[in-house]
Amino acid sequence: MDKKIKYLQLIATFMISLVITIPVYSASVFADLDEINAKGSDGVDNYVKENDYVEFEATASISGDTEITPEQVWMGSKSEFDSCSIGATGYDCKLKYPTNGTLDWNLKAVPYTINLKDDDGNVVDTKSANLYVDNLPPEVTSFNIGPNLSGAGDFKLEYSIEDKACGDSSCSGKCSGINKLELYDNESYKKDIAIDTSDCTFTNESLQESSVFGDGEHTIYAKAYDMLGQISDIVSAKLTVDNTLPVVDSSSFKITGVNGLELDYASTNPVPVTVNIEITEDNLDNGNVIGNFTDINSNYHDLKATCGQTTDSITGCTWQIDLSVSDETAKEFVIEAKDSMGNTASAKMSKSFSVDSTGPVVTSIQTNKVKDNKSYAKLTGNNLTATFTETESGLDFDKVILYVDGVGVKATNCTEGWTCYWDGVDITSGGIVEASIKEDTTDLLGNKVDELFTVDVIVDTDKPKLLNLSVGSIGGSEEELLNYTKTGDKLQIVAILEDESVETAYVDLSSIIQDGNNIEADECTNTDGDNWMCVWQETPEIDISGYIENYIYFYFEDTAGNVEQQQEAITVYGLINEDIVNYWEHELECSPELIDRQTTPLINQKVFCHVKLNPLSGQIVTPLSVELSGCEGDTSALKEFDSFNDATGNKDSYIKLVLNKNTFNVDEINLECSLSIMSLVGDEITQVPEKENVSIKLEFYNMPLGELSEDVEKKIKDAIDDANGGVWKFVTGAKKMIFYAERLCQMLNVGYNIVAVYQLVTNLLGVAEDTNPYAKAIIYPERVGQCIGTESAKTAWDAKENIFDKFCKFVNCQHTFDTEGKYTGLIGKWQEGGDKLMGFAGGDFLETWTGKNTNSYMDPKSSMTVAILTACLPGIVYNLDKWRQIQCMYAHCLKEGVEQQGLPIVACEDQKSYAECKYVTGEIFKVIPFTAFFDYYVGMFKDMLSNPFKIIGAGAALGCANLCPAPTEKPHGLCMGVKIVSLIGQSMGDVTTMIDEGVFTIRDDYCEKLENLEESEGELG
Question: What percent of the chain has pLDDT over 90?
Answer without folding.
Answer: 38
